[in-house]
Write a structure and sequence with these properties.
The protein is of the alpha+beta class. The chain is built from ten helices and nine strands. The strands form two sheets. Strands 1, 2, 3, 4, 5 and 6 form a six-stranded antiparallel beta sheet that branches. It has a three-stranded antiparallel beta sheet with strand order 7-9-8. The longest helix is centred in the middle third of the chain and has 27 residues. The relative contact order is 0.12.
């Protein structure tokens, strides 16, 4: 890695929790030792069951944690935007990784193996405290996902996904960058049920949707579906088969 790239990486790492706790000299050493890698959409950094004792800095692009259930259906657990660290579970417990890490958007990463990263973390209690904070935050996000799957129906979960994914502007036509299969992976349903629910929203005047675009016509109504479910929000049970899970 040339000096200019190394210095730019060191500056980025200095703003990231865990690394921001380190002395500048140690950050510079880590920047020079980092292994750079480019990924295309759909690739995997690792798979469930792999032993992966590494730390990764996502410099650009986006990743996501996914699982494949016993029927072969893919489920999205968490999105990882650029600027974040990925801390391999294997690094801390020597056990296999519990899920896949998939590339959502073309990504550039910088990584360190166990030999390079463990001494640095062990010598810096503040950095380890940040590691704990990151892991606890991930657990809280997983709790939210589990509650959603257990207690919300498909219309609620799909409405929440659309609200989270697209900026809060009515009357703006957005490029539809989520396929039915991706939406299904996020909300824990079949693509067919997601399609039926999506066009149910359109029938109730909340959205205008095509294969390539989506427009919010009544975002407050969609927000009510996300909060309250089908019946109270739309006065109907036919938004994708009502309370279907």
């Amino acid at each position: 890695m040339n000096a200019v790239v190394s210095e730019a990486l060191a500056q980025s790492l200095a703003r990231v929790p865990v690394f921001s706790r380190l002395p500048p000299a140690e950050i510079s050493i880590l920047a020079r030792a980092a292994i750079r890698r480019e990924y295309e959409s759909g690739e995997h950094v690792f798979r469930e069951g792999d032993f992966w004792p590494h730390v990764l800095f996502l410099a650009s692009g986006a990743l996501r944690w996914t699982l494949t259930d016993t029927e072969g259906r893919r489920r999205v657990l968490l999105d990882v935007p650029c600027g974040n660290l990925i801390l391999g579970h294997t690094l801390f417990d020597s056990l296999p990784m519990p899920a896949d890490l998939e590339v959502r958007d073309p990504a550039t990463t910088y990584g360190w193996d166990e030999e390079a990263i463990r001494p640095v973390l062990s010598a810096n209690p503040g950095a380890m405290w940040d590691v704990c904070r990151i892991q606890v935050r991930a657990l809280r996000r997983m709790r939210e996902l589990l509650i959603s799957l257990a207690f919300q129906n498909v219309p609620q979960r799909l409405a929440a996904l659309l609200i989270r994914w697209y900026p809060p502007h009515s009357g703006v036509v957005f490029k539809r960058d989520l396929t039915l299969e991706e939406m299904a992976a996020y909300v824990g349903a079949s693509a067919a049920l997601v399609c039926k629910t999506l066009y149910g929203f359109a029938d109730h005047g909340m959205l205008s949707v095509s294969r390539t675009s989506i427009e919010f016509l009544d975002r407050p109504a969609l927000e009510r579906v996300a909060r309250e479910g089908t019946t109270s929000a739309a006065g109907s049970e036919d938004l994708g088969s009502g309370a279907a899970r």
